[in-house]
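sry for the spam today, last one i promise. struct tokens for design, 172 residues
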């Protein structure tokens, strides 16, 4: 009985091997049509500087309703500029084939994403940039913000500091 089972299994394996080999050999000769790219940049994204939130809504908020700006970003325009001055050297990009995004835009996108808790897809739509671009920008900018603000607000503790914290905790 054992040899019959082994014979059936080897026959199945031979058939599978033959089928895979045929697919591999003939697959090379089948011409696949390349996926036709519809456009390099979606047409509505090209209007970023004319209709994007950063270029239209934010300047209007600062001029006409600074209180609403504060509600949207949890900081004043002056604090935004302070943070921008700290972060800008690390997030600034050079112009190459295309015009680079100014350092203020990634900071705006990141703060809009973090404050609103909205999806990156909607931030992408509001800023008129591609979703993967916004994803990369937010990831990079949050790292830079952390790197820049960590030494200012999260100072390393010494063993004496930990003893004092433990002592204060016990005496609560």
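last one done:
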């Amino acid at each position: 009985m054992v040899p019959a089972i082994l014979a059936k299994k080897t026959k199945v394996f031979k058939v599978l091997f033959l089928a895979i080999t045929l697919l591999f050999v003939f697959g090379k000769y089948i011409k696949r049509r390349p996926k036709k790219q519809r456009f390099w940049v979606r047409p509505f994204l090209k209007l970023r500087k004319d209709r994007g939130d950063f270029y239209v809504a934010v300047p209007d908020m600062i001029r006409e309703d600074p209180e609403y700006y504060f509600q949207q970003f949890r900081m004043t325009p002056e604090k935004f500029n302070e943070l921008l001055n700290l972060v800008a050297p690390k997030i600034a990009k050079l112009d190459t084939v295309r015009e680079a995004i100014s350092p203020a835009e990634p900071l705006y996108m990141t703060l809009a994403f973090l404050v609103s808790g909205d999806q990156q897809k909607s931030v992408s739509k509001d800023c008129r940039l591609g979703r993967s671009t916004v994803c990369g920008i937010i990831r990079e900018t949050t790292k830079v913000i952390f790197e820049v603000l960590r030494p200012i607000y999260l100072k390393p503790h010494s063993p004496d500091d930990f003893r004092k914290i433990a002592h204060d905790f016990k005496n609560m």
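Residues 2-29 form the longest helix (28 residues). ok im logging off now
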